[in-house]
Specification:
The chain is of the alpha+beta class. It contains four helices and nine strands; from the N terminus they run ββαββαβββββαα. The chain has helices at residues 27-37, 80-83, 150-153, 156-162, and strands at 2-9, 16-22, 46-51, 57-62, 90-95, 101-111, 121-126, 139-140, 143-144. The protein is globular, with a radius of gyration of 29 Å.
Length: 193
């Protein structure tokens, strides 16, 4: 069987690709198909998050094994038939580290394999790919959630000026006499060259 998977870029614009891939191929093949369909450059780290019906992550599958003991599952271990059991199943895909691209993948259709087709293949493109990964600048009450505003935390200056440091002074503090200080430097020791 062939899976038709709709891969949607997580951005405010409608940008998606439909990729056809064999059910016997694995998540690593889908990873390559997404890179090709969206013209993602480089060999950045990536991860698939397999979701349940409510969107809760059941399992995370990285490109490379990052576990301490070296026996974690990677993309080449998980077949598409395991990740997508039914039409309508969804997984989340993240690509990159510094520039994080996020995608939502949904199995939208199953059909028979066509002869002489090299899968995975992009069969439909919608929207233009941005040059940079979309930033996560979620709006909260009209304010950017990326940089917290001082209004949200109160005025630091007012709080600082209202604090008294008198309680922190210790009356028994002994100041060191300058006579107790010993120099380790000897003025007579100079190197002649």
């Amino acid at each position: 069987m062939i899976y038709k998977i709709r891969v949607i870029l997580d951005t405010k614009d409608d940008i998606f690709r439909d990729i056809e891939i064999k059910e016997k191929q694995n998540l690593w093949n889908l990873h390559l198909g997404i890179k090709s369909a969206f013209s993602l450059m480089g060999d950045d780290l990536s991860i698939f998050n397999i979701l349940d019906k409510d969107g809760v992550i059941l399992k995370s599958v990285p490109l490379e094994d990052m576990s301490d003991d070296g026996d974690g599952e990677i993309m080449s271990d998980i077949y598409l038939s395991e990740a997508f059991e039914n039409v309508g199943d969804k997984i989340h895909f993240q690509y990159g580290f510094m520039d994080l691209w996020e995608f939502f993948c949904e199995l939208i259709e199953e059909h028979d394999e066509k002869p002489a087709v090299n899968y995975p293949i992009t069969v439909f493109r919608f929207g233009n790919m941005p040059l940079k990964a979309p930033s996560k600048t979620a709006k909260k009450n009209g304010k950017s959630a990326v940089i917290p505003l001082l209004d949200d935390f109160g005025s630091f200056e007012d709080e600082f000026n209202s604090t008294s440091f008198a309680d922190e002074d210790d009356d028994n503090f002994d100041e060191e006499d300058e006579d107790d200080f010993e120099d380790d430097f000897d003025d007579d020791t100079t190197d002649d060259i």
